[in-house]
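For reproducibility, we list the full input for the magnesium ion complex.
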Amino acid sequence: MDFIVKFALQNISRRPGRSIAVLLFSVLFAAAIFGGTLLIGSMQQGLRVLNSRLGADIVVVPAAAKTKFNVNSVLLQGTPGYFYMERKVLDDVTGIEGVEKVSPQLFLASMTADCCSASLQIVGFDPRSDFAIQPWIRETYGGLLGDGDIVAGSNVRFTDTRMLKFYDVNCKVAAQLAKTGSALDNAIYANEDTVKRLIAASQKKGMNQYNSFDPADVTSAVLVKVKDGYDIEKVAGEINLHVRKVKAVAAKNLISDVASGLSGMSDMIGICIGTIWILCVLIMMIVFTMLMNERTREFAVLRVLGTSRSMLSRMVISEAVLINLAGGAVGILLSFLFVMLFNTAIGNLLKVPFLMPSVSTILLLAGATLLISILAGGIISALSAKRISNMDTSLILREGE
Amino acid sequence: MKLLADNISKSFARAGSQQKLFSAVQEASLLLEAGRLIAVKGRSGSGKSTLLNMLGGLLKPDAGHVFFGETELYTLDDAALSRLRNQKIGIIPQGHTALRSLTVLENVILPVRLYEPERDAAKQAQTLLQEVGIGELAQANPAELSGGELRRMAIARALIQNPPVLLADEPTGDLDDENTELVLRLLRKAADAGTAVLLVTHESAAEPYADEVYAMNAGKLQFVL
Ligand SMILES: Nc1ncnc2c1ncn2[C@@H]1O[C@H](COP(=O)(O)OP(=O)(O)OP(=O)(O)O)[C@@H](O)[C@H]1O
Ligand SMILES: [Mg+2]
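The corresponding predicted structure, in tokenized form, follows.
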């Protein structure tokens, strides 16, 4: 090993107090960059996946649902909830100009009770007309969903027997969807007939708020695909105008509620990262300058013993780079563990879809963070080193005897 | 090997009176030769350290030249001058100069490691420490050493490269009589072994050990005996 590096390591390990002080700031520095960027990246990734998973241009729900439930939170944030409207809405919506495809969805919420395995949002779709859910199911499951088969969101827990029970009806988990980072992960999907059976079962048990209807006559939401060349907002407006007792919402508005919350959040996190960055750089500069001043006599002795200016600079920079390398690695690891362990909790807390980016993206980010840490340490120490090596050795030696 | 100071002068700007330069050393000439110990005595502030630093390649004179053999020191670039200092000039600086993150032995070996990291100088360093009487402190931390012991460590460190020239700046400052004698005897021994030694001191205890004695008086160097 190069003497300079060896000497730097020796200086670091023999003065643990001093090294740890600098290390702490470099850990903080790296954690702020890496953790913060990972947070923002995860939110963006979550939004991207959610956006494509929703798959519809317009969502039509009962007008009453708008007041009773936050439609947004049922559709996107997966709070278990249900509402119904007459099934003929489907035909009414189909008749609106500009509508290309429609597909009904039937909702039910299971309960935390003996009859059910867990409290989940249950979404029934019509296999023939569905264009929003099946493309996603097909990514993990090639077969056809039979009666009583369900597809579970990635957060749904089930045992080896792959059976889940809802209102005492046993359902078989045929497949599990990939993670979206949103509450869609907490839902289960089945064909409409299965969900109708479940609704009937819940009514029979007296566990459904709506006991008066025949499940075959209702639907909870209608997903609409708009023909090319038509303005989605205008078509939604037409639906609102011509179909009674429903509310049509453009999906991008649903998402944009989430998205604008998210961009506000990203901005805030960005500002936090920036502030921590600047503070860390300033503190590191001050700490370094102080440490270097404390060590001027040591450097002067090195010069007397024949260390050239450039060797001295390399010693100082090596020390800083080594510490920042270690600190950067620790900071990255800690913030990664934090985000990984708590990503569900963070998503819930921030109320945004939250999905960690791919491994390669994370590795790239880690590499970039490490590089920035090393560069920052290197540049800050290079400034100190320049000042030190330009100092007059004989002058330093006269001081502080 | 000879180290020659030829009419060297150094002035400093004194804070407060920016206009007036303070003359620390005026046209001093001095010749250090192999096997001879030259003592320069003088009061505090008379310019002794300034002279020694100029001879050691640490401080460029305003006027005059310093020759190491045929080489004029201050025509060398920093890298070359540093390397020459490392290999040819052993310097015992004024005050305490141990590196605190190294053990006593590592301090002594440090000059070797700078340019020859592969060379194992531990044995040689241990022998030197033995010679200066602190062999048992090799593994100690410099913080555990007394002033006299630190000074002896600095001497061992200055000798590790077997330099032809040894410059000692008040190596006996604040030492008791016994330690002073011990250090002076070590320097004499080095001179007897063929080193050119310059000893700067404000005490007269050094005179019996010196081949020549100079006095530094307000920047002027005078031959005494
Ligand atoms: N870098 C400097 N800047 C300004 N003045 C200096 C500088 N170096 C030395 N001097 C002045 O030059 C004079 C000689 O200093 P020097 O250190 O050579 O004295 P000295 O004889 O070694 O004293 P001492 O016995 O106390 O070590 C002093 O008055 C000192 O104040
Ligand atoms: Mg002095």
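The two ends of chain B are 22 Å apart (CA to CA). Chain B touches chain A through 32 residues (CB under 8 Å). Both points were considered when choosing residues for closer inspection.
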